[in-house]
Amino acid sequence: MSTTTQALIFTNYPEGMIKETDFEYTDQVPFNFDQSLDQDQIMVQLLHISVDPYLRGRMRKNAMAKHYAATFQTGKPISSGCVAKVLKSNHSVFKEGDVLVGHFEWQLHQIVKIDQDQVKNYQKVDPNIGKIPLSYYLGALGMPGMTSYFGFLDICQPKEGDVVVVSAASGAVGSLVGQIAKIHGCKVIGITGQPAENQQELKDLGFDVILNYKDYNNDPIALKDAIEKAAEPKTGIDCYFDNVGGFVLDAATLAMNRYGRISCCGSISDYNIEDRMSNLGPRLNYLYITRELSVKGFIVSSFYNRLDEGVKKMTQWVNEGKLKVLESKVQGLENVPKALIKLFTGDKFGKMIIDL
């Protein structure tokens, strides 16, 4: 048996947009497949890797204080959500042949020690759950799905007839939020960077109107006018699920109706800006006051005490055909940097998955 395995090493803190040269692929990592395991250790092989925009925030040498996740160290593989198969086990909970969903390093084969108080961080895939693809556990049934479910329903609290705007609508989270809004009887306006000829997939998901933010030249007033026109016969919007920040957030805020709700999930527009502190302060706070808006940010892990609820409901909607799952797939560890770049260029639909 081979005595080496593959890994993707994080080599350089990016300045601006991620570059392929910020990583180094190797297939020469020494690995002993016959080694004995200590108590609570398992040997796994990665099957799928999740790449998500939030990873960019952990690739900063001088990360902002009080960031919710630690900065990645250069010279090592970084980690993210993965699907992995247990090849060998010395663990009381996880056995050989089990398929797990959890955070693993970007190394094809690895030894992982899972202390008993960490077991809750790894989900064992039920082999009897049906014909749901394993990659869905990194998307609709994983972190993006839970982000969509709790971040939209708990914070936006949609009502039938509401007008909902979703930014990054073609992404892993946005494409799910739009469909959840439709399930709840809302009119849904999706904002994307996809040109008109590439928008059919979003139309097939049920989005009522699709706007390309690139058509508005970073002008929040022009985009606000387009949002209000799309909301007709209503005069504005009731809910905004924000994945991007920037001028799109400004435009949506300007279009909000009284008592509107804004769920702040991501800030893709400035993830690749080094000095993110240079644009401080809510410029439209007078609208928060005069229109009595509710604006709330969240981290999905805050809802993990209700994880079973979210997974059960999202699984039900997938099985019923109410939720369609969009995926963009890339093959091989060596191509992960290309996939990361696509997260910020809009050159993909749905959840970005690396197949191994």
Description:
The protein is α/β, with parallel strands linked by helices. It folds into two domains: 4-139 and 326-355, Quinone Oxidoreductase, Chain A, domain 1; 143-301, 3-Layer(aba) Sandwich (Rossmann fold), CATH 3.40.50.720. The chain has helices spanning 143-156, 172-183, 200-204, 220-231, 246-254, 285-290, 307-319, 336-345, and strands at 4-10, 23-30, 41-50, 76-77, 79-90, 99-105, 109-113, 123-124, 163-166, 187-192, 209-212, 237-242, 256-264, 294-297, 327-331, 351-355. Strands 3, 5, 6, 7, 8, 15 and 16 form a seven-stranded mixed sheet that branches. Strand 13 (256-264), helix 6 and strand 14 form a beta-alpha-beta unit. The longest helix has 14 residues, at 143-156. It starts with a strand and ends with a strand. The model has no long low-confidence stretch (mean pLDDT 91).
Tell me the radius of gyration: 21 Å
Could you tell me the mean pLDDT?
91
H/I helix tally: 8
| Poorly predicted tracts of residues | none
Under CATH at level 1, the class of the largest domain stands as Alpha Beta
User: What is the helix fraction of residues, given as a range?
Assistant: 10-25%
Strands, total number: 16
Main sheet makeup: 7 strands, mixed
Fold-level CATH name of the largest domain: Quinone Oxidoreductase, Chain A, domain 1
**First-to-last CA distance:** 19 Å
Work out the strand percent: 25-35%
Please state the overall shape, judged from the principal axes of the Cα atoms: globular
Secondary-structure element series = EEEEEEEEHEHEHEHEHEHEHEHE
Give me the secondary-structure category. Answer: alpha/beta
